[in-house]
Design a protein that fits this description.
The protein has 337 residues and is of the alpha/beta class. Helices cover 37% and strands 16% of the residues. Strands 1-2-4-3-5-6-7-8-9 form a 9-stranded mixed sheet, with helices on both faces. The chain is globular. The protein starts with a helix and ends with a strand.
Length: 337
């Protein structure tokens, strides 16, 4: 279980997914779809589970009592149903948090909601989602948690001046730090990961065009079966970025990006992560609001300690959220796990 490749892939095994969904039965039973108005006509799909103290049978238009809402964001080509999202959601829900599992644009079954395709620099709509939560539940404190690209997003939200004051803090698990480095790691690393993302991204783009037949045909790009070529082609055709390099830099959080953190934030990253080099943590801006926990093992978004139960990451997020609630000061540390 300590092997980084095992930790990275074990959550995709059907048996593990079944165990996780069984552990998350209460979370999933209370979930209701919510289409969030994120501004500028953008809608994002979420699944809201209200705890027992807030009658989950009520419509989401009923204002709950003062509460803590955890907004969980998946990684690239994951979804609100991803194993790690359900696992964390179940842990938080069991500990009294209302839970919103949010789908990024064009993830899950949300391709029909917005015409323009997803890209990783669409920060405004994720900020808009947090504002929609704050506006809908004005008495609630909002906590953000994200995995991989989702972790990158929640850290950028926490450094954005437009984020609502109701945000209490953010935790990022295996966040993408420098997208150019992660793309190179995927190209040079184990081919299983590269094929996995190419396959899922290709399926997603085909689903997008079925929902919006007037969009250009993606097939010539998909035939390359190459992440860099596919990304570069879509950046050129569907964004205003001048180059692939400028696009990747647009959502990097290395350099000064996190120097403007407005809320306490924490990062959990493993030294055996095959996609995000832990050495790049040294390239983050220093901030008194930032906690960094660097572990020896855990892979990418893994951190499983046993097959059936909360992961180390689940417990880390819960602990950090409780610390944020008490306004405990953050610290920078490492962990020999």
């Amino acid at each position: 279980m300590r092997n980084g490749q095992v930790q990275t892939t074990v959550g995709n095994l059907p048996f593990i997914q079944w165990l996780t969904r069984r552990r998350g039965v209460a979370l999933l039973a209370h979930a209701r779809e919510w289409l969030l108005d994120c501004g500028d006509g953008v809608r994002l799909q979420g699944f809201l589970s209200l705890t027992g103290r807030n009658d989950a049978a009520k419509a989401i238009t009923d204002d709950p009592a003062e509460s803590r809402i955890a907004l969980i964001l998946h990684g690239w080509e994951g979804s609100a149903e991803s194993c790690y999202v359900v696992s964390l959601g179940a842990q938080l829900f069991a500990n009294g948090f209302d839970v919103l599992r949010l789908n990024l644009r064009d993830h899950g079954q949300s391709h029909h909601l917005n015409r323009e395709i997803f890209h990783s620099c669409r920060l405004t709509e994720v900020v808009g989602a947090t504002r929609a939560v704050a506006e809908r539940f004005p008495k609630a404190q909002i906590f953000l948690a994200g995995f991989s690209l989702g972790g990158n997003f929640v850290l950028r939200v926490s450094a954005d001046a437009r984020a609502p004051a109701a945000v209490g803090g953010a935790v990022a698990i295996s966040p993408v730090l420098d997208p150019a480095v992660t793309l190179e790691a995927l190209e040079r690393g184990w081919s299983v990961y590269r094929r996995y993302f190419v396959r899922r991204w290709s399926r997603s783009l085909r689903r997008k065009r079925r929902a919006w037949p007037d969009l250009p045909d993606f097939e010539s790009l998909l035939r390359t079966q190459d992440l860099r070529s596919m990304t570069e082609g879509l950046v050129r055709q569907f964004t205003d970025f001048a180059s692939l390099e400028s696009y990747l830099d647009g959502y990097a959080i290395t350099g000064p990006r996190l120097s403007t953190l407005r809320f306490p934030a924490a990062i959990l990253l493993a030294e055996d992560d095959p996609m995000v080099p832990a050495a790049d943590l040294a390239r983050l801006a220093q901030s008194p609001r930032l906690t960094v926990l660097r572990t020896r093992h855990g892979g990418h978004c893994g951190f499983m300690e046993r097959l059936n139960g909360p992961s180390f990451a689940d417990q880390f997020v819960l602990t950090q959220f409780e610390l944020f609630t008490r306004d405990d000061p953050p610290s920078v540390e490492s962990h020999p796990r």
